[in-house]
Amino acid sequence: SKPSEETSKPSNTAKGQQIASTGLRYVGNPYVYGGNDLENGIDCSGFTKQVHALCGIYGLPRSSGAQRGGGKAVTGGLSNALPGDVICYSGHVAIYIGGGQIVHASNPAPYPKGGIKTGSASYREILAIRRYW
C-alpha cells in the first residue's frame, strides 16, 4: 500500500464541504462559554459538534480536548486538511473551510472581534487535525 494513503482525498469531500458551508451560515452569532445554541450562543466545541450534527454526523465529543482525540487523524499539516476537518488548538477547536481559513466560535467579544467568525487557520499553533466525516 502507498504511504500517502491516509492523506489521499476521501470519496465524500462533498460532505466535508457541506460541514464548512453549514458552519459559515452562523458567522456573526455570539460565543457563549458552555453554550449549545448556534443562534444565541455557543462555544468552540459546541459549534463544531452542532455543525457536524446538522450534517448528519453525531460522533463528536462535547469538549475540545476530547474532539482532538476522536475522528481520524489528518497527518502532514494544513496542506492535507480539507474543508470540514476539525482543526485543534490548545483548548480550542475550529472547522476548516479551505484556503488556509477556519470558521469558529472564537471568544465572548462582540462580532467581528469575537463570536462565530472566520480567520486564518494558522493564527495559533495547530496541535491536531481530525476528520469526523
Explain what you see:
The protein has 133 residues and is α+β, with helices and mostly antiparallel strands. It has helices at residues 13-24, 44-54, 64-68, and strands at 36-37, 41-42, 72-73, 86-89, 92-98, 101-105, 116-120, 128-131. The strands form 2 sheets. A 6-stranded antiparallel sheet has the order 3-8-4-5-6-7. A two-stranded antiparallel ribbon has the order 1-2. The two termini are 23 Å apart.
Describe the structure concisely for a colleague.
The chain is an alpha+beta fold. It is 21% helix and 23% strand. Mean pLDDT is 94; it is low at 1-5.
Note the main attributes of this structure.
23% strand; alpha+beta; 21% helix; 133 residues; 8 strands; disordered N terminus; six-stranded antiparallel sheet; two-stranded antiparallel sheet
Span between termini: 23 Å
Described by strand count, sense and barrel closure, the largest sheet is: 6 strands, antiparallel
Low-confidence stretches: 1-5
Number of helices: 3
Mean pLDDT: 94
The main sheet orders its strands as 3-8-4-5-6-7
Fraction of residues in helices? Answer: 10-25%
Class of secondary structure makeup: alpha+beta
The gross shape turns out to be globular
Strand content: 15-25%
Sequence of secondary-structure elements: HEEHHEEEEEE
Radius of gyration: 14 Å
Report the strand count: 8
